[in-house]
Give the backbone structure.
Amino acid sequence: MVELIPSETALLIVDAQNAFCHPDGTLGRSGVDVAPLAAVVPGIARLVRLCEAHGIPTIYTLHTNHLVDEGRNRHRIAPHTAKRATVACQPGSWDAEFVDELGALVTPSSHVIEKHRWSAFYGTRLDPLLNILGTRLLIVCGTTTNACIDSTVRDAYMRDYDVVVPRDCVAGVRQDWHDAALGVLAHYAGEVVALSEVAAQLAPEGARA
């Protein structure tokens, strides 16, 4: 695994929201088994704490979809939002809030980026923020592997960031899509590693000794 240099690293937590991780969120109410997505939340929380202990900035994306979206409405092919029980993550809704375990970790020093499309880079301030922070390597975790994680990692690679994806801190809506996305990303766009490999580098000095 690539060396993690804290001063050049940032942690990006993608869409850890009720819509995707809670059984009462939009995906759960649309018939998706969200258990795999909920299962990665404790690992993400551990990763956040490890990064913060080493001074690595934490950046959370907050995905929101407006109920009326004229750009989305121009699609002649039904957009993905039309394939759920309702439009997910509407601004100001419980659906759009961070899941409790991770929302409790958001502090005034955390960065929160609102986005409206899959990639965390599309139409957001993420790239300028990473430049301000001096980031060269992104640790990417969250949901969903087959959509927002995949799009974000590809866009990070296109911008010449190194990317590390802890495989046990991401999840998708289907296991085969999750596996396929990680396989492609590992081959072309970054390193897919175990959380334990990241933890081994970010463990407190005493624990490493």
About this structure: The mean pLDDT is 94.
